[in-house]
Design a protein that fits this description.
Number of helices: 6
Number of domains: 1
Strand order of the largest sheet: 3-2-1-4-5-10-9
Order of helices and strands: HHEHEHEEHEEEEHEE
CATH superfamily: Vaccinia Virus protein VP39
Structural class: alpha/beta
CATH architecture: 3-Layer(aba) Sandwich
Largest sheet: 7 strands, mixed
Length: 218
Amino acid sequence: MIIEWEKEWDKIYKQYGEVQSEILPSVKMAVDIFRKNNCKEIMDLGCGTGRHTIFLAQNGFSVIATDISVTGIETTKSKADSIELKNIKYVQHDMRKIPFDNDSLDGILCVWTTGHGMLIDIEMNIVEIYRVLKPNGVVVIDYVSTADANYSRGERIENNTFINNVKGEEKIPHHYSTKDELEKLYVNFARVEIIPISYVYGKNNENTIKAYLVIAVK
């Protein structure tokens, strides 16, 4: 299935702007994890419009904000510049092909991103994350689970993957993961913790995303 990812996400960001501004609890947890593991420079992989990039930078990390969308990168930079944050670099790229050297990154944060795509996209992303992390480097990343309310909605295009099932992202495939699947995908990492997590959001907390948070050390 061929999708022009960059154009699709540019269109979504231009149409909807910053949909969420609250910092996710998994990101607050990630800050503590990165500090405990002595991570200094963090890649916000799939930074979107930058809320977590800015949070990481304000917590003293050197941050590399990356996204496939030029609009997302530009929005993130504009917000950071407006509050004079200087400890952020910006790189536009596809998360399935990270343009960094082997063993080069202390830590990677990737939230509310990986469920967009098919299983092969997730597999490619994990291979790249493993490649660019330093030995003992840490990734904190989440995956929407098969327990989520949107699971099985829309058109099934492969096992646990659907399109036309999330409002505003109708053309984007959405894959829903199981714990067994994630354990197999992260088999090369030295330490892996997989935690069920629920994200509650919306003006009246009317929406919930059921996911797994993966904390993996290379």
